[in-house]
Specification:
This protein is mainly β and 330 residues long. It has two helices and 17 strands. The strands form three sheets. The protein has a twelve-stranded antiparallel barrel. The protein has a two-stranded antiparallel sheet with strand order 11-12. A two-stranded antiparallel ribbon has the order 15-16.
Length: 330
């Protein structure tokens, strides 16, 4: 088992003293790992943060994936924030189960391993605040992200992927803003290509969190996340073979498509549900959030080679997610 990368902690330690000289942090949107609140940046202000989510353990062998994202955000107005992030994918795994793919195939088979840190791509986004949780009965923001990936998050293999992600943020505060509840809903439209395979995927990523300020500068929280995707991969080598149609789609399942002239919601491929606590601390000019989520339930379509064990999914999901985010405002 490999924990979050030492390089990340060295970077944070080096930057921390300088960040203590900046203004007061406003980080109420970053109290959890996957949930984000409705807050946007004040006009002409900047925020830089580094987020690492470490995904640990499949149902076979050893598996660690560090998803590291340095991100910069800027407030164009008090209601509109734009941002850009780099994707750094750090994989270390050796799985034993030949059915646990794509990891088993990518590592080169039994007894082999995969160990590589790669530039995974980039992400561009915006977020617009409609209603304030401090002034209105309910906080509401909308967002949109475009993500370009050149490395597959599961196994570190080369891919060609474009994702278009509309986002809904909702937030309700209680007890003079000491108790915060939030919901983040994403619908991801992904087009992914590898040699001989085309996947058009529609995915849902839904997360809800609650956090309480139990002392000055400190929040303790709890988070629930559900992720699922809907697709039927097109396999060029299988076209016309038994069990596949003449285009390479598996019989008995619907494919997804989000072309303007061909909209389709495909069959569910897999899902996973996670739960766990978080802790958040904010100081002058900087803040930090640490979280741990455990997969509590997962599954996949019967007959589609989903790796299911003990009611949990391990081809697309992991046992544990560890999150650490540190941000600075200026």
């Amino acid at each position: 088992m490999i924990l979050p990368t030492p390089a990340l902690y060295r970077t944070l330690t080096a930057l921390l003293p300088a960040c203590l000289l900046t203004g007061v942090a406003q980080a109420d949107e970053n109290l959890w790992m996957y949930v984000k609140g409705t807050d946007t940046r004040p006009k002409d202000s900047w925020e830089f943060y580094i987020k690492e989510v470490t995904r640990l353990d499949k149902a076979s062998g050893d598996y660690t994936f560090n998803d590291i994202r340095p991100e910069l955000e800027y407030g164009i107005t008090d209601k509109l924030t734009v941002g850009a992030a780099l994707l750094i994918f750090d994989h270390h795994y050796s799985v034993d189960d030949p059915d646990l793919n794509p990891m088993f195939e990518t590592q080169g088979g039994a007894g082999e391993d995969f160990d590589d840190t790669q530039f995974g791509g980039f992400e561009l986004g915006l977020k617009y605040n409609i209603l304030s949780p401090y002034k209105d009965p309910l906080g509401l923001s909308v967002g949109f992200k475009y993500e370009r990936r050149e490395v597959y998050r599961l196994d570190g293999a080369d891919i060609d992927q474009d994702s278009f992600v509309p986002i809904l943020y909702m937030q309700k505060n209680f007890l003079d803003n000491t108790l915060i509840t939030s919901f983040t809903g994403k619908m991801e439209f992904e087009r992914r290509e590898t040699p001989g395979v085309l996947e058009e995927e529609i995915a849902l990523d839904l997360a809800a969190g609650i956090a309480y300020r139990f002392a000055p500068k400190w929040f303790a929280g709890f988070e629930v996340r559900y992720q699922s995707d809907f697709l039927n991969p097109q396999l060029a080598d299988e076209a016309g073979n038994p069990g596949y149609d003449d285009q390479g789609f598996e019989d008995g399942y619907d494919r997804s498509s989000f072309d303007l002239t061909d909209w389709r919601w495909g069959s569910q491929y897999q899902y996973g549900t996670y739960m766990g606590p978080s802790i958040h601390y904010a100081e002058e000019g900087w803040w930090a959030t640490a979280s741990i989520l455990f997969q509590v339930k997962g599954g996949g379509s019967e007959g589609r080679n989903a790796n299911i064990e003990g009611g949990k999914n391990y081809d697309e999901h992991e046992r544990v997610h560890l999150g650490l985010t540190v941000g600075w405002e200026f």
